[in-house]
Design goal:
The chain has one domain. Helices cover 80% and strands 0% of the residues. The protein is built from 13 helices and no strands.
């Protein structure tokens, strides 16, 4: 199995975990606030990855001679973007439903190639642009076009989409100078947890008793979605460029909508189903078109 195939599998699995985690995020705030939920899930993600860090990368890390200040600065930046994406998404679920929150998160697919191009002059395959438009169209169909009022929750998700886009772009950039995916995945969670915990301690009531009441939701969102999924994301970005990867990760909106339909009785009408089909088609197109060009023009 090729490295790119493994990266594709990792990206799809990651999007599935992220999408289904919306259910845990939505039902996990009955007793705790959004800042506390975000901090707890990210901290759990860190502890879930910590053993793998010591087993697979710790000995290699202590031998490298890279500039520690540059590594820490990049890790701090990733943690900040991760915290921002998480908290805006989490707070949005207080005001909007799972499908809307997941779908508006998909907007980062549109933002990623623009950021990659303007920030780093990164060339991207021409197939990305129609795929991005298809994802946007699918997202609009999923989000109910007859709802003309932009709710507060939807606006918060859009802000969070910029954080997710920046996170994807900078993870891909960071991996080129510090290729230790487990280390990045673990410590970005720790930094993001600290960013979320500071406001949580100031404006929300935190206790182990309240946290234990949301244990199942926190374990799923923390260990699987924050820990394992972010590791899969970083592994995927090792062999996928940011824009196609972002399109694959946008499947979280599809998985979240289906999960909300099955588990929370949030009905998917024919327009939403059409939106899912369009997004799936965009994902397939974005991956097949570059492969076709390579074969057609004999590129390696």
């Amino acid at each position: 199995m090729s490295k790119k195939t493994i990266s594709l599998i990792c990206a799809v699995t990651c999007s599935f975990l992220w999408g289904t985690a919306f259910i845990a995020q939505d039902t996990g705030m009955d007793y705790i606030g959004p800042w506390t939920f975000s901090a707890a899930r990210l901290l759990l993600g860190f502890f879930a990855l910590l053993p793998f860090f010591f087993i697979f990368e710790f000995k290699k890390i202590i031998k490298i001679k890279s500039n520690i200040k540059i590594i820490l600065a990049n890790m701090f930046l990733l943690g900040f973007f991760l915290a921002g994406g998480n908290i805006f998404q989490q707070i949005s679920l207080l005001y909007t439903d799972v499908a809307n929150s997941a779908v508006f998160t998909v907007l980062y697919v549109v933002i990623v190639p623009v950021l990659a191009y303007f920030l780093f002059s990164k060339s991207i395959h021409k197939s990305v642009w129609p795929a991005v438009i298809m994802c946007l169209l699918g997202g609009l169909l999923l989000s109910e076009l007859d709802n003309y009022r932009v709710r507060l929750g939807d606006s918060l998700v859009v802000v969070g989409a910029f954080f997710w886009a920046l996170h994807i772009v900078y993870v891909s950039k960071f991996l080129k100078i510090f290729n230790f995916p487990i280390t990045i995945a673990a410590f970005q969670c720790l930094i993001a947890a600290i960013f979320s915990a500071i406001p949580a301690t100031s404006i929300e009531l935190i206790s182990f008793k309240l946290l234990s009441l949301e244990a199942v939701e926190l374990i799923y969102a923390g260990i699987l979605s924050s820990g394992f999924a972010f590791l899969l994301q970083i592994i995927a970005l090792q062999h996928l460029s940011p824009a196609p990867a972002a399109i694959i990760f946008s499947l979280e909106g599809v998985f979240a909508s289906i999960a909300a339909w099955l588990m929370l009785d949030q009905f998917l009408n024919e327009y939403k189903i059409l939106g899912i089909i369009i997004i799936l088609s965009a994902v397939i197109f974005s991956q097949l078109a570059p492969m076709y060009d390579k074969r057609k023009y004999g590129r390696n």
